[in-house]
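Hey team,

Filing this mostly as a record. A colleague (T.K.) asked me to run one chain through the structure pipeline before their review meeting, and I want the input and output archived in the tracker in case anyone asks later how it was produced. No errors, nothing strange. Just documentation.

Input sequence:
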Amino acid sequence: MSDSPRFTRRGLFRGLGTTTLIAGCATQPAPAPVPADDTAAPAEPPLEGTALGPGPAPLRFSLNGAPQTVEVAPSATLLEVLRHTLDVTGSKLVCDRGACGACTVLVDGVPRPSCMTLAHDVEDRKVTTVEGLATAGKLSVLQRAFVDHDAMQCGYCTSGMLMSCQALLDRKDQRIDATTVKQAISGNLCRCGTYPNIVAAVLSVAKTRGA
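Output structure:
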């Protein structure tokens, strides 16, 4: 029997692994320093203005024609400010996802879901809620038409419906018919199914104005 060492595949791989490990642990030369670039662009100046947060910040806007100044957290929605801070509860919290339209208000005359609108987004803007439709305790023409045409039942959708319909009536360039009314309230859900009565109420107001 020969005493010469035997070469096996396992021994070969083990030797290669050890060699690689030792080579990887060897000290690598430090990279050469990068010379300073005198032509590099200067750092951009900070943005002007004051960032919001993390605490409450002043918010100024007009609500139903009256100026408002409140301290509001940056994350607060307009609906939260209306209901919990200002105690203006006509706008309803239902889906809290901007899908049902019950919280619809007008921001500079445009219908917006207040549950999906950050309060600070209405800075220096005009917000109108359902409370702003009546004058001196007297129902508006549209509100009276809703009553006359039995266009409300449980009432959850009514305030949002009124605001969407009011925005349509306020548009001077819009021809109002059944189709345009349905389009205007397409984002407002009525669980009681009074859509035909709502359309009839709006058309009655439009007809009176046209006359």
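Quick notes for T.K.: DSSP finds six helices and five strands in the chain. Strands lie at 57-63, 66-72, 104-107, 110-113, 126-128.
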